[in-house]
Write a structure and sequence with these properties.
Layout: E1 2-8, E2 12-19, E3 33-39, E4 45-52, E5 57-63, H1 67-79, E6 94-99, E7 110-111, H2 114-122, H3 131-145, E8 150-154, H4 164-167, H5 173-177, H6 187-201, E9 209-215, E10 219-225, E11 228-232, H7 253-263, H8 267-276, H9 279-284, H10 290-298, H11 302-326, E12 331-335, H12 336-341, H13 343-350, H14 362-366, E13 372-373, E14 382-385, H15 390-402
Parallel strand pairs: 1-6, 6-8, 9-12, 12-14
Antiparallel strand pairs: 1-2, 2-3, 3-4, 4-5, 7-8, 9-10, 10-11, 13-14
Helix pairs in contact: 1-3, 10-11, 11-13
Subunit structure: Homodimer.
Keywords: ATP-binding, Cytoplasm, Kinase, Magnesium, Metal-binding, Nucleotide-binding, Transferase
Main location: cytoplasm
Length: about 400
Amino acid sequence: MKILVLNAGSSSQKSCLYDMTTTIPPLAPQPLWEGKINWTQDKNQAEITVKTAIGATLQETIVSDSPQVQFAYLLSTLIHGATQVIDDLSVIDVVGHRVVHGGQEYKEAVIITEKVKQAIARLCNLAPAHNPAALAGIEAMEKSLGNIPQVAVFDTGFHSTLPDAAAIYPVPYNFAEKGIRRYGFHGISHQYCANRAAEILGQDLPSLRIITCHLGNGCSLAAIKNGCSIDTTMGFTPLDGLMMGSRSGSIDPGILIYLWQQYNYSSEELDNMLNKLSGLRGISGISSDLRDVIAAKKQGSKRAQLAWDMYVHRLRSGIGAMLASLAGLDVLVFTAGVGEKSAEIRLAACEPWGFLGLKIDLEKNQQQPVDIDIATFDSMVRVLVVETQEDWAIAQQCYKLLQ
């Protein structure tokens, strides 16, 4: 079964092609083909990068603001040129999509119908950086591949097990009845990493109390007990929780009322400020990329130092909150771009938890670890760096659903 996976992010669209045989392999295989569309500052341009399992690569910039044109070009690299891996697009059996917000209705992967598309569209205002991109991908595949089965895998699904005490906000109860509650996000990643952590440690997932730290441009934590999410930092939208690349994370809601009343901020201005002009970018004044902030910090930038200090403070606070929900901790997992690649962040995040018996191996932490335990042998808490495999997790769900 050939499965094409589309993973819509806030600034890019990643795609992978997997060739699944009659059984699901225990470890994530290398995709036959990987493609990526990066949207640059110029909305009329898109950077296309492609690589294949045998090492062929392509990198081009196309001039078009049409998702349909961009996707059509990306798909053409599957069947033409040095990056060709299949003879015809018709051999693709199913397309799987990461959809960030599924609301209360969608807790499991589903075959995409018009009803599902309408639900994804309705939820665009709750995930404005992601759901519209997923919807564009779905519609582009309809036009390019015809009546092929498409599957939606929802980031909110894993967190559907949150208890009401964690999910319901302390506002008038009728808001909860209208669906205003904590949904949580990055669920595909949190679920995959928890399962992978148990595999690496050779233990049963239900026996472990795990905190997974998904730290990328977007950041969230999850507390996982008995294999289920029982707490998480993101909320009704992906804006809640930790300080992120360009998103504020949790702030006093009174600030928004104050800005509206005293400075006449519109809802659009508040949305743009909180989602695109805040976080590391807003505090440092330099970049939403933590690597740039660290570099500026080392060169003496006070605002970059402040951005780092705030990021670490809120990350530690979030881990503390998850720790309280779990009433203990067996495994701390770091994943996604920052979590997987920044030894400095992992060290800073682990530093306060010595009283739990958590000890990080400084040498292992510096060695670009992938899917290994970086705690010392005598640490009471295991500390893992796991390469998140959202695309592979989506492909697995597609395979199971079509079977």
